[in-house]
Amino acid sequence: PKYLLKKKDKKFSSECYLLLCPTRHMWSDARLPSDKGQDILINGLFNYISNFNNRNFKVLFFEYGNDVGKSKDLVSKLGIKNYVEWLPKTTPDQVYKEIQNADLILLEGASSREWNSCHAQTIMANKPFIAYLDQGSDIYPLSLNLKCEKFENLLDSFFQNPLAFTEENKIRKNCLVSKYNESVKIITEIVNN
User: Fold this and answer.
1) Nearest CA among 12, 171, 25 for reference residue 107
2) Neighbours of 174 (CB within 10 A)
3) What is the predicted pLDDT for the residue at 159?
């Protein structure tokens, strides 16, 4: 598909990091349980760009969810449109291809107690990720956690040492695979077929 962005494409140099947020856009000031918190991620990107930015990167968002318009407005308001690309809503297998292609996955910016398909695909693709997880979550100890750290600090630690970040993710994957062995087998079969 045309929207599958690869590093060899002209719009991205080989030095450009691709950050992908595959979750749907749902956020509110009230912080409902269904919120994904893209506003937190977008504000965190702005803070990173304002305070740390010495990296060439693009953040890829899917045009998916009730609050895509609000997210686009916030990106414009903060003046970070040059760092963001919008991909059309697509199928789960195409989302997985984008996850495989990205350098870092940005999951929920607000509370999430369960691991969902985006978590599973990210872990199976061996990709480092940033997410907000409550202590009640089964993967709470396995994620770089936005509840404990500011997004811009986590993003900076990734850029400082992407290999270490990726190695930490392998430990998370092994823990999760051992805990959910049967589920992981099913997910692996689905994404590999």
Assistant:
1) 25
2) 12
3) 86
Q: What is the pLDDT of residues 83-107, one digit of tens each?
A: 999 999 988 888 999 999 999 998 8
Longest dimension (CA), the chain: 45
- Per-residue pLDDT of 10-45, as tens digits, reads 444 556 889 999 988 887 665 565 667 788 889 888
Q: Measured between alpha carbons, how far is 96 from 113 in angstroms, rounded to an integer?
A: 22
Q: Which tokens sit at 191?
A: 């994404």
| CB burial string 131-168: b at 16+ within 10 A, e below | bbbeeebebbebbbbbeeeebbbbbbbbbeeeeebeeb
Tell me how far apart the alpha carbons of residues 22 and 18 are, in angstroms, rounded to a whole number.
12
Judged against a pLDDT cut of 90, whether residue 145 lies above it is answered with no
Nearest C-alpha neighbor of 176 from the set 131, 161, 146, 148: 131
